[in-house]
Amino acid sequence: MIYEMRQYRCVPGRLPALLKRFETATLKIWEKHGIKQAGFFTTLIGESNQELTYFLAWDSLAEREKKWGAFTTDPDWHEARAKSEADGQIVANIVSQILAPTAFSAVK
């Protein structure tokens, strides 16, 4: 199992719009493609309170490539993204890291 950590820094004031998009649209599209989330977090204390961090669980890099590729080209995703950004851009920056658990990690 590998994990992907994704951090989205929002345009100031747009975090609520991003959270709404995940809750009402993105997660349903992920479910359709078999994408497994391992947790979502907002920043309580840190550099920016306009960030969303989440983790995805993948069996392999090949699985990630196949499922993430299908998601990013899904017309439902493009429609949901366009609709959620009707009032302007939401995300200013995205950082993604692929992580492998250590032998002593509680998460495997």
Structure commentary:
38% of the residues lie in helices and 31% in strands. By secondary structure, it is α+β, with helices and mostly antiparallel strands. The chain has one domain (2-99): Alpha-Beta Plaits (2-Layer Sandwich). The protein has a four-stranded antiparallel beta sheet. The radius of gyration is 14 Å and the shape is globular.
The CATH architecture can be named as 2-Layer Sandwich
Write down the overall mean pLDDT.
96
Which structural class do the helices and strands define?
A: alpha+beta
Task: Give the helix level as a range of percent.
Answer: 25-40%
Under CATH at level 1, the class stands as Alpha Beta
Overall tally of domains: 1
What is the general shape?
globular
Beta-strand residue percentage: 25-35%
Helix tally?
3
Order of helices and strands: EHEEHHE
CATH topology: Alpha-Beta Plaits
Strand order of the largest sheet: 2-3-1-4
E-strand count: 4
Radius of gyration, in angstroms, nearest whole number: 14 Å
Alpha-carbon distance between the two ends? 6 Å
Low-confidence stretches: none
